[in-house]
Amino acid sequence: MKYFFLFILLTILSSATVLAQVEGEFDPKTYFPNLKIEREQKDSEMKSSEKSPIAADEKDLFDKLFYYEPDTAFRKVAVFKRFDQATRFLMKTTTERLPEYSLYGAVNFIHDGKSYTLNVYQNIELVKKPGYEKHLFLPFNDETNSDETYGGGRFLDLTENGADTLVIDFNLAYNPYCAYNHKYSCPIPPEENNLKIRIMAGEKKWHQ
Fold first, then answer.
1. Which residue range forms the structural domain that includes residue 151?
2. Residue 205 and residue 66 in contact, taking contact as beta carbons nearer than 8 Å
3. Closest Cα partner for 53 from 101, 92, 94?
4. What's the confidence (pLDDT) of residue 122?
5. Rounded to two decimals, what is the model's pTM?
6. Which ranges of the chain would DSSP assign to H, the alpha helix?
7. Residue 200 lies in a domain
8. 136: phi > 0 → left, psi -120 to 50 → alpha, else beta; which?
9. How far is Cα 202 from Cα 204, in angstroms, rounded to an integer?
């Protein structure tokens, strides 16, 4: 599948995910129920959709995905710096495929009093598609990898909002398709996005 994360975007990005990126519209009273609905919707899609990455012979055994309990401490209002010149490069994947990305900018956030920075990217082909012009991609590794979360890292989808801040909501972190089926080709988070911290939020590894 050329754009492995399109399925996630089309089926999971409900109003809660979109609003999670606009700090002024964040409402804890609706955030948690909407996130629960999103996760239930994704479980349904993973089990029944023809686009599900789970192999047909494993769907009968599939019940639900595993997540950390939502925690707003992992929802960060990050300083967003756009780079004057977006450097293009070929991102490594789990196969020989080398999709072209641009290094769009970087976000900086504080957790437990320490500062962390992650690079933000754009997929050159994806942003040409209607509706995805402002799509930003944030892949990352952290110290839960292989232990509690997928060893190949997790992803976040963001939207360019024209502001000097972006909300980085790790409760929305999801696994690439490779976490469920090795036949897919998935980006490998660049080393610059290896966090020396345990991000105990978002999706856990599939097989517990």
1. 6-193
2. yes
3. 94
4. 98
5. 0.87
6. 6-12, 15-19, 28-48, 56-59
7. no
8. beta
9. 7
Residue 208 lies in a domain: no
Whether 168 is covered by a domain: the verdict is yes
> What sign does the CA torsion over 90, 93, 99, 104 have?
negative
Beta carbons of 50 and 34 less than 8 angstroms apart: no
Tell me, what DSSP letter sits at residue 67? B
Contact of 160 with 87, CB cutoff 8 Å: no
Is 204 inside a domain boundary? no
φ, ψ at 90 (rounded to 5°): -100, 115
pLDDT > 70 fraction of the chain, expressed in percent and rounded:
88
Could you give the number of structural domains in the chain? 1
H-type alpha helices, 49-191 = 56-59
Cα→Cα distances 35→25, 143, 176, Å:
15, 24, 19
Q: Among 20-29, 165-174, 195-204, which is the least confidently predicted range? A: 20-29
| Cα-to-chain-centroid distance, residue 102 | 17
Helices (H), 66-174: none
Say whether pLDDT at 125 is over 70.
yes
What is residue 96's DSSP assignment? S
- Tell me the per-residue pLDDT of 92-124, one tens digit each, with 9 for 90 and over: 999 999 999 999 999 999 999 999 999 999 999
CB contact at 8 A, 137 and 122 = yes
Radius of gyration of the chain (CA): 16
Q: Of 19-33, 83-97, 104-118, 135-149, which gets the smallest average pLDDT?
A: 19-33
